[in-house]
C-alpha cells in the first residue's frame, strides 16, 4: 500500500476537527486553572521530540520524507528512535493532545485514538513494509526491540 496523505496534512485535519468541535459543540466543554500552561508544555514536548527525530535523520543523512519511505538510506535506531519507532508521529499525537486540551472540549480527546488508527493503517504499515524490504532482518530485530509508538 502506498501512503496517500502527508502526515502534516492529517494532523491539520484532525486539529481542525478538534477546533470545530470546540467551537460548535456545547456539551463537554471544560476549563481549569493551568489548562493553557499544560497544553503549552505538551506542545513543547511534541516539538522537542519531532526536532530530535529530524536531527537524527539529518545526522544519518537519510530521508525524513514520510511519503517516500523506500528512499531511506540508513536505518536510524538511536536517540529518540531507541524508545519509539515513530517519534515524529508520537510528537504529532502529543501536538493533537495539546490542541484538545487548549480548545477545552472533551470530544477532541476522542479523536486521538482515531488519529492513531489512521496513521497505523495508512502511514506506518506502508513505511514498515518499505523498511522491511530495505533493511530485512535488521529492521525486524529493531521492531522486536522497540515499540511502534512508545
In short:
By secondary structure, the chain is mainly α.
Explain the overall architecture:
By secondary structure, the protein is mostly helical. The protein has one domain. It has four helices and no strands. Helix 1 (7-24) packs antiparallel against helix 4 (106-145). The mean pLDDT is 97.
Q: Can you tag this structure with a few keywords?
A:
single chain, 150 residues, mainly alpha, 4 helices, 0% strand, elongated
Percent in helix: 55-70%
Instruction: Assign the structural class, choosing from mainly alpha, mainly beta, alpha/beta, alpha+beta, or little secondary structure.
Output: mainly alpha
Order of helices and strands: HHHH
The total tally of domains equals 1
CA-based shape: elongated
**Main β-sheet: number of strands, strand sense, barrel status?**
none
Quaternary structure type: single chain
The CA-CA distance between the termini, in Å, is 24 Å
The overall pLDDT average reads 97
Low-pLDDT runs of 5+ residues are none
Strand content: under 5%
Total strand segments: 0
How much is the radius of gyration in Å? 17 Å
Q: Helical stretch count?
A: 4
Explain the layout of strands and helices.
Layout: H1 7-24, H2 35-60, H3 87-103, H4 106-145
